[in-house]
Design brief:
Strand order of the largest sheet: 5-4-3-2-1-9-8-7-6
CATH class of the largest domain: Alpha Beta
Structural class: alpha/beta
CATH topology of the largest domain: TIM Barrel
Radius of gyration: 26 Å
Bound molecules: beta-D-galactopyranose
CATH architecture of the largest domain: Alpha-Beta Barrel
Number of helices: 17
């Protein structure tokens, strides 16, 4: 039997009495909810005293839900350890960069590397897996909740010891570490691994090599914690395992999800930045090279906590969010949360029902979304998202790098968004990929804002180009080593040979007189620029002019094997630069033979899907809430009625259409 589409909500039955739970279940059924997520903060209810684990309440809930045709995503409760644990063992507290130990309360206030915490955490996970993991109705596990969403690196003494072990494994000798980080600078030289500090408070900046490695250490450790939980669960339960991640958490998502079964994420993007969410649909779908993901948390109306409470989404926006998710490969779409919390810091948060049982302002939208999913399901379950031909890199390693050496007033995510928006605007169907992506699936890969290019990744790009792929490198790629130091052979190290360029200068260009000229456009460079000279057989596509140095190139094309490498020396500005980017990326896409292009409008999202026989479907969604018309090449019919689609398809605000190619 095909796996159903899951429409659900986060639910906290431990907060309510049995009559309220009964009413909730009735309302869920009326709304078409077929799954809830439970348990992620309920450790105290499961183990009120050390070792006294009692899971009967949750067993009964899972069974009650199942008898009402509602399945369960079961979460491990490790983000909120019970008070007895932190009270008896204050040494398990998370310690921040200023050496302040966090107090019990909120969540993530404990060090997930502490052996004592781990012992208790693995014990409760094992008990849950044993007692609940094979109950009918348990369709998936969620590990913890949003790892590293509130905290990043911990600075406690346990982490210090683990850090030293980690360094020993990585560098083998202290000399190798000293050499890699250049520790003769500012008398940082270390005689043993034990002398290497954690990058806690100092009068000025730490060596970025130290900081970057500490971040990597932290990201590896949280993954070890996650994977240990996964292994325990798998001993007893065959339900698939996921985690609800997010874009900005201190995580290496590619490594995190490798042994997990599917990707889930949370997003509360407001309507006006829908493309932030859309980028995530294209990223999380591609992360495991698959075609599917879950949106584990989103609000039916608005987010909120006692410090900030945004207004509800505009009427109809939820429809756009939901249709786009399903079209892009979501197989689960879940709200946070079902019933507004009566207590705690998130009481102002939007929900499906209010605490008093009334229907929240987003209720009608949620009801409509349930109906839409039912309508879409025949098309969704018989088709898959078509494989994209273009992959745009979004790298957690790069994001981490920019935390150590930021781009003045721009963020990594914001700059990737600008490039992403250009692809959407050109109607190019795309994946947002990680370094581990299987490049042979693509015709064109775009590698921007990657300060350090690992040798293994460069080799992969070489192979891809040799076999006919087209690569765009830059802006801001390759100017640091993976140890966060500067190359001593060339400005961009070995990347220059791959790009067929020589870079003489690398500097911050925002306030200079630099101009990028090409494709009939003149624009200014933003952030850091690497104006270059084409080497023999490379071709200049745009020039870089300034009084600071002789004229150089702003864009270059280089033949590499059967393919091409395009180099972009700097990020074009936000005005004319948009046109420059369109032309430049359009040129590379054309060269690569990219032909999966549909609506060339920023107001309408177009997602191609294909069925087993290769028939193409197109889901169109108005994303700006203003409505628009769309003209498409070729003959299309309405996928539901079979009627020919009009030449000009009208999409009212946040409305959608599903077409089938004839
Ligand atoms: C998420 C979190 C939820 C809830 C929600 C509120 O980050 O996983 O537990 O706090 O935000 O928007």
């Amino acid at each position: 039997m095909a796996e159903p589409f899951y429409y659900g909500a986060a639910y906290y039955p431990e907060l309510w009495d049995s009559e309220t739970i009964r009413q909730d279940i009735e309302e869920m059924k009326a709304l078409g909810i077929n799954c809830v997520r439970i348990g992620e903060f309920a450790w105290h209810r499961m183990e009120p005293q050390p070792g006294k684990i009692d899971l009967r309440f949750f067993r009964n809930i899972i069974q009650l839900l199942k008898s009402n045709n509602i399945d369960t995503v079961l979460c491990t409760p490790t983000p909120t350890p019970p008070r007895w644990l932190t009270y008896q063992h204050p040494e398990t507290a998370f310690v921040n960069q200023d050496s302040v130990a966090y107090e019990h309360g909120a969540r993530q206030h404990i060090c997930t590397n502490h052996p004592l915490f781990q012992m208790h955490a693995f014990q409760i996970v094992e008990a849950m897996a044993k007692e609940l993991g094979n109950l009918p109705g348990v369709i998936a596990w969620q590990l913890d909740n949003e790892f590293k969403c509130h905290v990043k690196e911990c600075y406690c003494p346990v982490c210090k010891g683990l850090w030293h072990q980690w360094l020993r494994v990585k560098y083998n000798t202290i000399e190798a570490l000293n050499e890699a980080w250049g520790t003769e600078i500012w008398s940082q030289y270390y005689s043993s691994f034990e002398e290497v500090p954690q990058p806690s408070a100092t009068p000025f900046l730490h060596n970025p090599s130290l900081v970057l490695n500490y971040r990597r250490f932290s990201m590896e450790k949280i993954n070890e914690f996650a994977h240990r939980q996964t292994r325990i669960i798998r001993q007893y339960s065959s339900a698939p395992v996921t985690h609800n991640t997010g874009m900005s958490f201190g995580l290496d998502n590619e490594a995190l999800f490798k042994p997990l079964d599917f990707v889930s994420f949370d997003s509360y993007a407001p309507a006006h930045s829908f493309l932030t969410l859309q980028l995530q649909y294209d990223r999380w779908r591609a992360l495991k090279g698959g075609k599917r993901f879950w949106l584990m948390e989103t609000s039916p109306s608005h987010s909120g906590n006692v410090r900030s409470a945004p207004s509800p989404h505009p009427q109809g926006y939820l429809r756009c969010e939901a249709v786009a998710a399903a079209a892009c490969g979501a197989r689960g779409f879940n709200y946070w949360l079902w019933r507004q919390q009566r207590t705690g810091c998130e009481i102002p948060h939007g929900s499906v029902l209010y605490s008093w049982g009334g229907r929240n302002v987003g209720y009608n939208n949620a009801k409509e979304v349930g109906e839409i999913f039912r309508r879409l399901e025949p098309v969704l379950s018989s088709t898959e998202v078509e494989q994209a031909q273009v992959g745009l890199l979004y790298s957690d390693q790069a994001r981490t790098f920019f935390e150590g050496e930021p781009m003045a007033d721009a963020s990594y995510q914001g700059e990737i968004r600008r490039l992403y928006d250009v692809l959407v605007d050109m109607g190019i169907h795309r994946d947002v990929i990680s370094e581990g992506a299987e490049l042979s699936r693509y015709k064109l890969v775009i590698i921007p804002f990657l300060p350090a290019v690992e040798d293994s990744f460069l080799q992969k790009l070489y192979r891809f180009a040799e076999q006919g792929g087209t690569v765009v490198i830059g802006p801001m790629a390759g100017y640091r080593t993976p140890e966060h130091t500067v190359h001593t052979n060339h400005a961009l190290g070995r990347l220059e040979a791959f790009c067929g360029v020589r870079v003489a200068h690398f500097y911050r260009a925002d306030d200079t007189d630099g101009m990028m000229k090409g494709y009939g456009v003149e624009c200014r460079p933003l952030h850091w620029a690497a104006p270059c000279e084409p080497l023999a057989e490379s071709e200049e596509l745009a020039s870089y002019q300034t009084t600071l140095h002789p004229q150089a190139s702003a864009a270059v094309r280089h033949k590499a094997g059967q393919g091409y490498v395009y180099t972009l020396a700097a990020m074009p500005d936000c005005e004319e630069g948009g046109r420059f980017l369109r032309e430049f990326l359009g040129d590379a896409a054309k060269q690569a033979g990219v032909n999966l292009r549909f609506c060339t409008k920023l107001s309408v999202l177009s997602v191609p899907r294909v069925d087993e026989k290769g028939n193409r479907y197109l889901v169109l969604v108005n994303i700006d809430g203003k409505g628009d018309t769309v003209s498409l090449d070729g003959n299309w019919t309405d996928a539901f009625t079979g009627e020919p689609a009009p030449k000009k398809i009208l999409l009212p605000p946040y409305q959608y259409a599903v077409l089938r190619h004839k």
